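Dear U.,

For the methods section draft, I wanted the exact inputs and outputs in one place so we can describe them consistently. I've listed the two proteins in the order they'll appear in the manuscript figures. Please don't edit the token lines directly; just add comments below if something needs changing.

First protein:
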Amino acid sequence: MSQSPTSTGDLLAATVPMVRTLNLEFEETGAERAVLRLPDQPAYHNHVGGPHAGAMFTLAESASGAIVLAAFGDQLGRATPLAVRSEIAYKKLAMGSVTATAELGRPAAEILAELDAGQRPEFPVRVSITREDGAETGEMTIWWTLRPNK
């Protein structure tokens, strides 16, 4: 299932208050890739004037949620997507606006096959965080599951 950036963004903004709080912008959302942007906002700066680590974490986690929703939103009647763990690495100083690009770490068809077999699949979503000059400032992996609804 592929949703437009507006519909996915609207859905996440309606259900996840932090998306609204940080004014995240949805540039691309699809089952293969999601791209979200955190505008430069002084209210969310750290001690050196760049985006706070917590804001960058939320940006990356939200990008992962957007791709999961785009890839598996048509399964919500039978399974609930949940983040189960994550790891983030801050690699370079981020200044200005930053962008998170998320990609599924396993083919969606493989994940759905596990769900169809009665399993609770887990899968990684890899996210790259970049600043305006294209330099990667961070990377994150979020492990998601599709928990079957009872």
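Second protein (the one for the lower panel):
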Amino acid sequence: MSRITTPKPEHVPADSKTTLDAFTKTIGFTPNMLACFAQSPVAFNAWADLIGSLSKTLDVKTRDSIGLAVSEVNGCNYCLTVHSYTAEHMAKLPANDIILARQGHASDPKRDAALQFARKVIQSRGQVSDTDLKTVRDAGYTDANIMEIIALVAMYSLTNFFNNVFDPDKDFPPVSPAGSI
């Protein structure tokens, strides 16, 4: 049960309205999480700037897969529904790749290295080993790419924590619990 009231889009603060409207136009509707998050223009717009910048990094399949891996580790059911939907419909990942991503893996070897690294970053709170860094570098990721993976982990964790705290009503198709995949 939600622990936050979802405002109607027309009732969000004026300083969030332009950003929320842009997301609504892109997605086709206003997700509950975004309407709730928009109640804080400072936090919402900072997150929107970060997601906008990070959408220019790596490729969409890797970004969505990292979102799935991080959301699984953080136990964020809302984000798992969102990223499962976007992975299927926007990134065009097959169902088996979505399941693999939730487990921190990918069928593509380079993406697999990024997901394993992202999962280690979140699980270890950034205390990765030299071997972890070597593995992701050997897969073809530059230090700049590794920084982008870390930034994606942080950005997805932000929305995971927001959704875990407030538990907004789900408005994407449900996904199976991790134990059943």
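Candidate sentences for the figure legend, describing the second protein: The chain has a mean pLDDT of 95. Residues 12-54 form one domain.

Thanks,
Y.
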